[in-house]
Amino acid sequence: MRKRPLVLLSTVAAATLILAGCSGSAEPESSATPDASGSSQCMLDAQPGETSDAVTVEGEGAEATVSVPTDAAFAGVERTVVSEGDGDDVVNGDLVSVAFQLVEASTGEIVDSSARGENGELPVLLDQNNSSLFLAALECQPLGTQVVLALPGSVFGEGQTDKVVYAQALEELPEVATGTPVEPTAGMPTVELDDDGAPTVTIPEGDAPAETKVAVLKQGDGATVGEGDFVVVQYLGVKWSDGSEFDSSWSRDAVPSQFQTTGVVTGFRKALEGQQVGSQVVVVMPPSEGYGASEGHELQNESLVFVVDILATTPTQP
Questions:
Q1: For residues 113 and 60, is the Cβ–Cβ distance under 8 A?
Q2: What is the 3-state secondary structure (H, E, C) of the chain?
Q3: Long-range contacts for 106-109 (Cβ within 8 Å, ≥24 apart)?
Q4: Which of 102, 116, 265, 275 has the fewest C-beta atoms lying within 10 Å of its C-beta?
Q5: Nearest Cα to 168, choosing from 118, 122, 104, 218?
Q6: C-alpha span between 283 and 219 (Å, rounded)
Q7: 28-32, 94-98, 132-136 — which is least confidently predicted?
Q8: What does the pLDDT average to over 162-171?
Q9: Per-residue pLDDT for 192 more than 50?
Q10: For residue 318, what pLDDT is reported?
């Protein structure tokens, strides 16, 4: 499905260095290590320090006023809890709504914030490879907790400046499509869902369509996916030729995936852009809008079918 690796938020792309830089590893691990109970351990679990303790926050959410002392040391990655929430602990892999500000430490300028989202919130999939800044800020704290994360410029790369993140995870978001079921479209593959929402696809008789076709299975009422947006989805991909699965988020412990719509094959992009969050769609695409141009790819000559649950969308620019 993907053409290349992608990051979640353009304004914090460099934050994928945080976990690797602080752990001493060249790259972050691919997943959290389960503890004896089967739950994920903290990835970084940053502790309070002189700088994070000195940052003051007045108010809350995207409208909060965050003040950084001019003499702050920024000796390392530090996290201070401003106020503790009473929800479940937030861990790697959670999809949550977040109120946040990313602040330039030296000037107090707000580099980015969730104010551009509905109700001053934006959806974030906490993924160490794509949104590690938010994972470092929010992990292993209860929903509703307000935190300050102090980040020395070195974690973003050579010559970068110190920054402060103020963040609060407000609500856990659905990890399956929650829209209203729609009558099936004639000629399209049929889809059945198990108790967890995982789809099974049945391919109809006959040849695959010569052009990409998209049908809505559930109609959501959330934000509309725009051109080039970053999206969070669950998906299953099968071949039209024999119905066999070749890719699926459901086969990876049902952990959603996130990417930019411009970073996937054309047929998949057509299935996403213009749809509303909460929707589930099925798309059939010919090789020309799948992997037809990828010489030697195992799916180069295959017509493909995807079932996609659209869980969240975020514009690329503030």
A1: no
A2: CECCCCCCCHHHHHHHHHHHHHHCCCCCCCCCCECCCCCECCCCCCCCCHHHHHCEEECCHHHCEEECCCCCCCCCCEEEEEECCCCCECCCCCEEEEEEEEEECCCCCEEEEHHHCHHHCEEEECCCCCCHHHHHHHCCCECCCEEEEEECHHHCCCCCCCEEEEEEEEEECCCCCCCEECCCCCCCCEEEECCCCCEEEECCCCCCCCCCEEEEEEECCCCECCCCCEEEEEEEEEECCCCCEEEECCCCCCCCEEEEHHHECHHHHHHHCCCECCCEEEEEECHHHCCCCCCCCCCCCCCEEEEEEEEEEECCCC
A3: 106/70, 106/161, 106/162, 108/66, 108/67, 108/68
A4: 116
A5: 122
A6: 15
A7: 28-32
A8: 96
A9: yes
A10: 56
CA-wise closest residue to 122 among 138, 105, 140, 142: 138
**Structure tokens of 279?**
């929707």
Q: How far apart are CA 13 and CA 28, in angstroms?
A: 14
Q: How confident is the model at residue 37 (pLDDT cuts 50, 70, 90)?
A: very low
Domains of the chain: residue spans and CATH: 10-172 (3.10.50.40), 180-314 (3.10.50.40)
CA distance 179 to 197: 12
pLDDT at 1: 55
d(CA 36, CA 123): 30
Per-residue confidence at 55, pLDDT binned at 50, 70, 90? very high
Tokens at 165, concatenated: 């993140």
Give the type of residue at 236.
L
Q: How far apart are CA 273 and CA 292, in angstroms?
A: 21
Share of the chain above pLDDT 90, in %: 72
- CA dist 298 and 300 (Å) reads 6
Confidence of residue 200 (pLDDT cuts 50, 70, 90): very high
